[in-house]
Amino acid sequence: MKKQITIIGLGQIGASVGLALAPYKSSIKRVGHDKTPGTARSAQALGAVDEINFNLPASVRAADIVLLAVPFSELEETFKFIGDDLKPGAVVLDTAPVKAKAAEWAEKYISAGRSYVGLVPSIGPDHLLNVGAGQSASKADLFHQALFLVCPARNTAEAEVKRATDLLELLGASPLFSDPFEADGLMAALHTLPQLLSLSLLNATTNQPGWKEARKMAGRPYGLAAAAALYLDQAEAVTESVRCNRVNVIRVLDNAIRSLAELRAALNEEDIKSAGKFVDDAYLGGMQWLKDRLSADWDAEYKQPIEISSFSERLLGTWLRPGKQK
Known about the structure:
Elements: E1 3-8, H1 12-20, E2 28-33, H2 37-46, E3 51-52, H3 56-60, E4 65-68, H4 75-82, E5 91-94, H5 99-109, E6 115-120, E7 147-152, H6 158-171, E8 174-177, H7 180-205, H8 211-214, H9 220-230, H10 235-244, H11 246-268, H12 272-295, H13 310-316
Parallel strand pairs: 1-2, 1-4, 2-3, 4-5, 5-6, 7-8
Antiparallel strand pairs: 6-7
Helix pairs in contact: 4-5, 6-13, 7-9, 7-11, 11-12
């Protein structure tokens, strides 16, 4: 008997998960839901889901795993709508960038006898520098060689956590376990801060005198720096994630402001040596990160073996029989 995964939110993340699971559809039924009917239909036409259900509570009633890939501003409402309709034993996963608040909502709205495991996805090295968002940017191998932060809720059984980590194996990804509060600190720096710096750039330029002419000359450096803001799924999702992770966001903003202030002071004092060191240190650090990130050759303590066949052997037995795929 097939097991069901319901994917709620069929943008880049949700559709990519569905596409990655396509080779296993003989054992896994992929049900999709999106608040925009056209997005749901196009996901089905793309092959990311086997069927769509426009009724949100009904879409999860038979699901063994529910993946919430919705904007953060819609996450609490989604928990609220599905919490009482989950079948006993179901596991709910989400991909939100703020885990402590997501775990709080899960505990509040999900009925007893169901479990929650928070996930924070990252993009695989083959697609790291690709620009784009939404369903049109979905890829079956979007998460190949990527790490996912895995943040189980309190009292989540080991077997339920294993459902989440074994699902990651099917995506070609590896788990990195984290406390929700630790994850929030990381994501403030790695996810929210780049978006806020990009928005700051736009505010500092598009509303200034001379922009009417300057916009004609804005090129690759400007476009790359602005991309983090220009490809947001929803602007209100950033506002909500900032609100719910305020302390960490203030901390990383202070770090960014301090760094810029150091550069400004060096330039104001015509200290070119210090300004040059600022540029060189940042460039070398960035290039080392890019080299490491593209190779995905992390230390052994973070690496998890990816054995696709282990999903059927260790998880649910009848979910998947790789040797019997059609």
